[in-house]
Amino acid sequence: MAQFNPGNEFGTVSSPGTPSAVHSLLSRTARAAIDHGGYTYAWFHLTSFGNHCLYSVCHTDIQKEVWRFPHHKFLVRLDAYGKPVVTAEQVSYSYVNGLLITTRGIAYRTGCSNSPLANFGPVVRMAGYFGGACASCEWKLHRSRCPCRGLPEEVRFVPDLPLSLPPYNTIQDLVD
């Protein structure tokens, strides 16, 4: 599989044996930065290769189920140098959950009082998954403290079109 490039804030990986063959995980979809809550954000989307790499770090059945949902563009906070604060080598359990929520969940116009310095902008969550916590709280392991958490009787989020996992060889041939 791919090897994450440490310290690369732009989200790239290289293939084993061919470190010069670098593949992008994220693609910036809008040049204009968005100011939300005093912080600067930019729109990104997962590349086909990046989405496949995200699947490779999904270890639970719930993560794999959510990964099959259609993904969409998402906001990521930028640091003082204009680079995303979410990096490719961040693949802990909570980080994977946070990325799954922000790339597949529903955005709300409100902010989360538990995560004023949100990595993913306004509240993005998936009812019935990951305790109903927003992506930023899940990213920071604050699921139980998230005020946006859903109630037990909340209807589970169901996407319009589930995706199946394409064969790995097909992914390598795609160009974004």
Number of domains: 1
Rg calc: 16 Å
Structural class computed from helices and strand pairing:
alpha+beta
Shape: globular
Measured between the Cα atoms of the first and last residue, the distance is 19 Å
Please describe the topology of this protein.
Layout: E1 3-4, E2 12-15, E3 18-24, E4 26-28, E5 34-36, E6 39-46, H1 48-56, H2 61-67, E7 74-77, H3 93-104, E8 106-107, E9 124-125, H4 135-139, H5 168-173
Antiparallel strand pairs: 1-2, 2-3, 4-6, 5-6, 6-7, 8-9
Describe this entry's structure for a reader:
The protein has helices at 48-56, 61-67, 93-104, 135-139, 168-173; strands spanning 3-4, 12-15, 18-24, 26-28, 34-36, 39-46, 74-77, 106-107, 124-125. The chain has 176 residues and is of the alpha+beta class. The protein has one domain (3-160). Strands 4, 5, 6 and 7 form a 4-stranded antiparallel sheet that branches. It has a 3-stranded antiparallel sheet with strand order 1-2-3, with no helix packed on it. It has a two-stranded antiparallel sheet with strand order 8-9. It starts with a strand and ends with a helix.
Main attributes of the structure:
176 residues, three-stranded antiparallel β-sheet, 9 strands, four-stranded antiparallel β-sheet, alpha+beta
Short note summarizing the structure:
This protein is α+β, with helices and mostly antiparallel strands and 176 residues long. The chain contains five helices and nine strands. The strands form three sheets. Strands 4, 5, 6 and 7 form a four-stranded antiparallel sheet that branches. It has a three-stranded antiparallel sheet with strand order 1-2-3, with no helix packed on it. A two-stranded antiparallel ribbon has the order 8-9.
